[in-house]
Amino acid sequence: MGKRLRVLEEWVLPLSKERIEELTSQFGTPLLILLRERVVRNYRAFQRFLPGVEVFYAVKANPHPSVVGLLASLGASFDVASQQEIALVTSFGVAPERMIFANTIKRREGILYARRVGVSLMTYDNEEELKKIQRYYPEAKLVLRLKTPSNGSRIDLSYKFGAEPEEALELLLRAQDMGLVPVGLSFHVGSPCHNPKTYATALHIVEDVLLKARARGLFLTLIDIGGGFPLHTYSNEGGPASLEIVSEVVYPLLEPFLSRGFRVIAEPGRSIVGNAGILVTRVIGKAVRSGKIWYYLDDGLYGTFSAIPFDKARFSFYALRESDQEVLCTLAGPTCDSLDVVAEDVVLPPLEVDDLVVVPDIGAYSWASATTFNGFDKPQVVMV
Ligand SMILES: Cc1ncc(COP(=O)(O)O)c(C=O)c1O
Fold first, then answer.
1. Same domain, 99 and 215
2. What local confidence, expressed as pLDDT, does residue 1 receive?
3. CA-to-CA dists, residue 224 to 55, 251, 297, 346, angstroms
4. pLDDT at 7
């Protein structure tokens, strides 16, 4: 194995085989291991590569209390999407000013709860939402979410959300006419976004709307650049893009706003927790079907691998068993649903029932969307 490859392997699987076995015998499987040091490193990378930009961790990516508690202790702020996420973050003593209710379509109960606990910063993208906010939280500070292109992104987050740039001015003035308080603009370039120019395009749209608003006497002071940052924060981590590279394009466009006194915030989720999560799942059965080897795992599409249907994610699989041989196999989940197939044509050593399979880079949008379908518990989570 070449030196560079070994460095990458160690980056991908930083825990020894013995440590993984020790943790699984203590906590059982499936087990999502969260690496504290990576969460800290990723959070600090934002401060390093985007200085002055406030980090609002998108709780939806991984709402495990160990992640929220750790980030709260580091001084992070939070992007929350529901009453439940507000309550979770509040339980760690985070002040309401350190949260943004970044869901443009909120339940009435959510708005009322935000008002009760004082989470006043919130997004909107349509007039019906303004009516709800006027009724239930008229003093809220409003951020208009814009629809922007998602070039280079796996998930388009301007399909379901975002006002057309052409209707932005009208929606801002409408808020003002209704006695509400518009303070800024937001966008999301899609997730993960591997084309830094997509942020540049979005920022040009923002700039144009800001100018038009200013010409009508409306001075906005906040820009929310959303999430979409890649899985890797540093360029030497082996991914196709990194926060470091994205920042080279994006930061020069943000600096003029920062120096003019704008508040600039980001809502990263994946890039904080994605590469901090390692799943350990166990082979619970094996079969040969139509001449192909099938290994059945104790985690599947209804569990941590829910990232596959929901986040369109693809993963790498490593077996702890060492062998000179390799087989082509199908990996399936434990439920009775035949849709529950995790991956096909995977190359692994020949495995036995009870062997462990390790999956790196699975910290975001995975455990968060796991269900208890068929009665299987959500995977255990441990932060080390
Ligand atoms: C409003 C909002 N902000 C932030 C995020 C986090 O995005 P990412 O995980 O790509 O950083 C999302 C993801 O869905 C989102 O919807």
1. yes
2. 41
3. 10, 13, 40, 40
4. 61
Inter-CA distances, 327 with 190, 232, 283, Å: 36, 30, 15
Residues 6+ apart with CB under 8 A from 301: 308, 309, 333, 335, 337, 339, 340, 341, 342
* CA atoms of 226 and 60, how far apart (whole Å): 13
* pLDDT at 48 > cutoff 70: yes
- Which one of 216, 239, 271 terminates a domain? 271
The per-residue DSSP string of 260-279 comes to TT-EEEE--SHHHHGGGEEE
Note the pLDDT tens digit of each residue in 303-335.
999 999 999 999 999 999 989 999 999 999 999
- Give pLDDT tens digits for 157-173: 888 999 999 999 999 99
Nearest CA owner, ligand 1 atom 13: 227
Range of the domain at 122: 36-271
For the chain, what percent of residues have pLDDT higher than 70?
98
CB 42 within 8 A of CB 233: yes
Same domain, 186 and 46: yes
The pLDDT tens digits for 222-239 are: 999 999 999 999 988 877
Q: Indicate whether 152 belongs to any domain.
A: yes
Our mutation pick for probing the ligand 1 site, out of 60, 146, 361, counting the most ligand atoms within 8 A of Cβ, is 60
Q: Which residues are catalytic?
A: 336
Find the 231 Cα to ligand 1 centroid distance in Å.
13
Q: CA angle, corner 83, sides to 78 and 85, nearest 5? A: 40
Distance 156 CA to ligand 1 centre (A): 11
Ligand 1 atom nearest residue 186's Cα: 1
Burial of 171 (0-12, 13-18, 19+ CB in 10 A): buried
The mean pLDDT of 356-364, rounded to a whole number, is 97
- Clarify whether residues 187 and 294 are in a common domain: no
- 373: which 2 tokens? 């379908």
Q: How confident is the model at residue 10 (pLDDT cuts 50, 70, 90)?
A: confident
Ligand 1: distance of its center to the CA of 26 in Å?
33
